[in-house]
Design a protein that fits this description.
three-stranded antiparallel β-sheet, globular
Length: about 290
């Protein structure tokens, strides 16, 4: 198993000059997650903390790179990263921002880590919600461990989470490819997978592509659309997504094929993607 591609900050996870601030942060997986929770607030959960997002914050979920996120944080509040900001002053993002920041900090410590795109089973009853988590390699346990760095004490209480979010059970978070296979095998309903008013096989297929991109260090926004993604089930290249789902189930066993798959134009992140929330094409700098 080659862990080196996941030990070094690269592309979206590269903090640039701001990485110097990481030296003063905790060295543990959980300690870094708590730091991030003091810097970020989920764009759809400000009411959990009794705040309303400012105009500044409402534009922040569309920031893609770690370097740009940290720059925004520093410009607004130059204090050390370890000092938690009040919820009303935090950078507003989504699960993917929490995950990307966590991956960046872990890689800065030389810990192999990667972002995984899929679905969480712990936000709504009988539903699998669009979600991102960290997957890091535990040298002591010799396994990949899932971590949800977004879930703080307040969210744990609101969602009734009763498991260790520093070791998320695999049945509580399904990587997109595993969700796809369950639905293809008739063991799950595709309409249980998605977010807001978007559910179905097409959504799962798009997340499979996002997960493959993330495994190739291209951790895009959850609403970035490109390549082989479609909003119509009938337009899905089923055999293609089947193959990707197989590759992402145990990515380390097929790392060569997984990296080669990224060269396919249906997966490669192009210079311009479509931001489905803002309904416009946007230039991507990776």
């Amino acid at each position: 198993m080659n862990l080196e591609p996941f030990r070094t900050p690269l592309a979206m996870s590269d903090a640039g000059v701001w990485a110097l601030q990481f030296n003063a942060l905790p060295s543990t997986v959980g300690g870094l997650a708590r730091v991030i929770q003091g810097l970020l607030i989920h764009e759809h959960m400000p009411d959990f903390y009794g705040v309303t997002l400012s105009d500044r914050q409402r534009g922040e979920p569309h920031v893609r790179g770690t370097e740009q996120i940290l720059e925004r944080i520093a410009v607004h509040d130059p204090r050390p990263l370890a000092e938690a900001r009040p919820p009303s002053e935090r950078f507003a993002g989504c699960c993917r921002h929490f995950t990307l920041m966590h991956v960046a900090m872990l890689r800065n410590r030389g810990i192999a880590a990667r972002a995984r795109c899929g679905f969480g089973a712990y936000f709504a009853k009988d539903m699998f919600t669009d979600h991102w988590v960290t997957e890091y390699w535990s040298d002591t346990e010799r396994r990949w461990v899932l971590v949800d760095s977004q879930i703080d004490a307040r969210q744990r209480e609101r969602f009734g989470i009763d498991f260790d979010t520093l070791d998320v059970p695999r049945e509580k978070f399904l990587v997109a490819g595993d969700a796809w296979k369950l639905c293809r095998d008739g063991k799950a309903n595709p309409q249980a997978f998605g977010v807001l008013n978007m559910f179905g096989l097409w959504f799962i297929a798009s997340n499979v592509i996002r997960d493959v991109a993330a495994l190739n260090n291209r951790e895009m926004l959850p609403w970035d659309v490109w390549g082989g993604m479609t909003a119509i089930d009938a337009d899905i290249d089923v055999a293609f997504i089947d193959r990707l789902a197989h590759l992402t189930h145990e990515p380390d066993k097929q790392s060569g094929e997984l990296h080669a798959a990224y060269d396919d134009a249906r997966i490669t992140v192009p210079p311009t993607v479509f931001n489905a929330v803002l309904n416009r094409p946007e230039t991507v700098s990776i």
